[in-house]
Fold this sequence. Notes:
Blueprint lengths: L9 H24 L4 H23 L8 H24 L2 H8 L2 H12 L6 H18 L9 H23 L5 H20 L8 H27 L2 H8 L2 H13 L5 H18 L7 H8 L4 H4 L2
Helix pairs in contact: 1-9, 1-10, 1-11, 2-3, 2-8, 2-9, 3-4, 3-7, 3-8, 4-7, 4-11, 4-12, 5-7, 5-13, 6-12
Amino acid sequence: xxxxxxxxxxxxxxxxxxxxxxxxxxxxxxxxxxxxxxxxxxxxxxxxxxxxxxxxxxxxxxxxxxxxxxxxxxxxxxxxxxxxxxxxxxxxxxxxxxxxxxxxxxxxxxxxxxxxxxxxxxxxxxxxxxxxxxxxxxxxxxxxxxxxxxxxxxxxxxxxxxxxxxxxxxxxxxxxxxxxxxxxxxxxxxxxxxxxxxxxxxxxxxxxxxxxxxxxxxxxxxxxxxxxxxxxxxxxxxxxxxxxxxxxxxxxxxxxxxxxxxxxxxxxxxxxxxxxxxxxxxxxxxxxxxxxxxxxxxxxxxxxx
Length: 305
């Protein structure tokens, strides 16, 4: 697929490359959001990504219609909403802050697992959830005049939708191609973005088309890297490495837009990432079923072609 398999620990390399690409995608999306609505960015990102992923599926002779339609559509809905809210948050908040809030997804996975899948939650996890929410408060920095801003709400919502997407992926089990799942995710983002972008639609300029094309290509390439990473490395390790996307977003925010994370964001981000790492590190697994909900995202038997 890619020419990195001969390196030592290629799964880690693929995972690091995916995190790097996420940082670049975030920076590109924020740059073009100055002149284009975030919903339109999501639409074109989806179109360009879909062309690439669909081409891979055709090359692999994967089916576009097989599987649990209801759960695939559910994954598309939550994934699409998650992408829309995240890109909107990027356009309104510092890139690093938006990325930190998105990393709360594992915390909401635990809550969803308890509510919808009736998974028991270890008592220690309640403290972890409380600490993560405290971290979010540090990042959001509410005031008496403005308790919580709309971008902060969409930032947290992006984590909630991402968590719901993890649950739906887990429900799909090991019998669905990750590329098929990705197609539904991209399809969901395209469908949800259309009604939102129509009222404020603008014809992209040549430079904007270039940015959008890069976002779409890098997104598809990142998805392929992530798929390969899960194929070659333990899922928990890949997920933890994925948290490094926060660093990339923070660096790009500073280098491209002069954004500096203040001490409150750093404290909040540290709390959130520490809590999520606690959840993901194998030695701290208090209940392995919970962790499997968001580490077994890619069915290995379906990508080993």
